[in-house]
Amino acid sequence: MDNKVIGFGIVGTGAIAGIHAQAIAALKNAKLLGAYSLTKAKVDEFATQYNCRAYDSLDELLKTEGLDIVCICTPSGAHLEPALKAIAAGKHCLIEKPIEVTLEKTDQIIAAAKRKNVQVAVVFPTRFYQASQHLKKAIDSGRFDQLALASSYVKWSRTHEYYSSNPWRGTWKLDGGGALMNQAIHSVDMLQWCMGPVQSVMAMSGNVKHKNIEVEDTLVAVLKFANGAMGTIECSTAVYPGAYKKLEIMGSAGTVVMEDNDISQWQFEQQTEQDTKISEGPSEHLSKGGVADPKAISYSGHQKQMENMIEAIYNNGQLLIDAEEGRKSVEIVLAIYKSAQTGQLVKLPL
Fold first, then answer.
1. Which of 276, 292, 269 is nearest to 144 (CA)?
2. Disordered: where is this region (predicted)?
3. pLDDT tens digits for 227-259?
């Protein structure tokens, strides 16, 4: 890649766009060239804050000289159009989670990227933290022996003002769902990454606090994995004061518990010297994890994912979370919603 400067553009200038801008600024040999938003006042303010150009149209942004990667930061159900336009222009895309809110839209993005031979990555920064990497390595090396249980907890607090701040929040069309699709989908991705394919799901959902939104604010699901293990998901935006997200992976020979992006328990039947180092202390600083404030997250996971994407594009590296990988969590979420709505066991694939 030599000393090429990677040019980034951002589409959508809501809260998460600022995390992308901070991550780009922290990269070596990268520059945020410009941003586009449907709301001119917002993009103008964003461009001033992050020292880039404000564009009046997406087409104009895509014609920018030196533009390589486009970050799609629009509402979840509005990823398709800007992604297809960017791909048609030959640009690589980093799409905020979820990749889209339906499998049909997701598959359109995947097909378009294949036709144009461009890379599409989906933002799941949790995978890039040290704790997650240690956990995955332990699973892949067979240290758990038979995987038995996998549980994720995302018990967060969101105010009424959070949902009323934008008309698209809390809608099926543009949010794609509630606590599960928007907050817990990171944990859904971690569950399937660690445990493998989900075979079936059963779920219940409801609205405990936020009665005026279309989607759920609380959900519980039971999962059966293809490897015979079982799991649970508990998620909410209705609890006070909220807690760090937690992931528990347990097998016949070991247990690992992660809180936010740190390891709180690392215990195996057969211990090694490396186990002591891993369990001695936190692998990452707790970021407050978005428990009560969606903006209270670190940009470091996004930065690591961007570094992985650049490596995959220019140095023949492996893209850790491509569009097809991002599709998996969407399918699991949609299966869980189907079960919650019908009261029936839902088998995958859909």
1. 269
2. 273-292
3. 999 999 999 999 999 999 999 999 999 999 999
Query: Quick one: which H or E segment has residue 170?
Result: none
Is residue 1 a part of any domain in this protein?
no
- Domain CATH for 184: 3.30.360.10
Exposed/middle/buried for residue 108 (C-beta within 10 Å: 0-12, 13-18, 19+)? middle
The pLDDT tens digits of the residues spanning 14-73 come to 999 999 999 999 999 999 999 999 999 999 999 999 999 999 999 999 999 999 999 999
Specify whether 225 is located in the same domain as 335. Answer: yes
Q: Are residues 174 and 287 in the same domain?
A: yes
How far apart CA 187 and CA 157 sit, in angstroms, is 16
Strands 262-268 and 254-259: antiparallel
Range of the domain at 18: 6-125+302-321
* C-beta atoms surrounding 85 within 10 Å: 18
Q: Which sign does the torsion angle of CA 164, 166, 170, 171 carry?
A: positive
E strands, the chain, where?
Answer: 6-11, 30-36, 53-55, 67-72, 92-95, 120-122, 147-155, 198-206, 218-225, 230-236, 246-251, 254-259, 262-268, 346-347
Number of domains in the chain: 2
Cβ proximity of 91 and 70 under 8 Å: yes
Same domain, 144 and 192: yes
Same domain, 182 and 109: no
Q: Domain check: are 47 and 88 in the same one?
A: yes
Q: Which residue has the tokens 């180092």?
A: 277
**Residue 138 structure tokens:** 């332990």
